[in-house]
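STRUCTURE REQUEST FORM
Protein name: Potassium-transporting ATPase KdpC subunit
Source organism: Cellulomonas oligotrophica
Requested output: structure tokens
Priority: standard
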Amino acid sequence: MTPFLRQSLAGLRLMLALTLVLGVLYPTAVWAVGRLVPDRAEGSLIAVDGQVVGSRLLGQAVEGPGWFHPRPSAAGDGYDGLASGASNLGPENPDLLAAVEARRAEVAAREGVDPALVPADAVTASASGLDPHVSPAYAELQVPRVARERGLDEATVRTLVGQATAGRDLGVLGEPRVNVVELNASLTALG
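Status: completed
Returned output:
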């Protein structure tokens, strides 16, 4: 057997072995692990009455006073997953400062509170622009409006907020947060 033929056969065997391992076995193993945690592997979808209404991982723009409003989004035309990203405006940028002040006035008027009481996450976008979470303070600020618009008592709405609230990861990482998509899905389920 010539050296060229021997090297060609060795290369062919290596290619077939790597194709089997990386093209069949590894993807099958990843798929099998995904089956163990299907909620996370399939987008953490939220369903109400069998109808998918969103994902626990991605924020959604909402219209109308009967819903909890998410934080602003800098991702394209509002929560556009294809345009994820921050505005990249610095903290002293006049455009950012003007946008924050306009948002503060809008939220204060909508919620009927003094602009000084509006939390920072109500007027600033997250780094990805897709964050589905708000602070418990911003959720609490919205409770009276949502309860009034939906004809519910505030205690019921606060209970829903509590159910959509997650604490710090591992007890120390991050801050408590309220998933607005889950919260609005709970409101949808109430009818």
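Reviewer notes: The radius of gyration is 24 Å. The first helix runs from residue 3 to 36.
Form closed.
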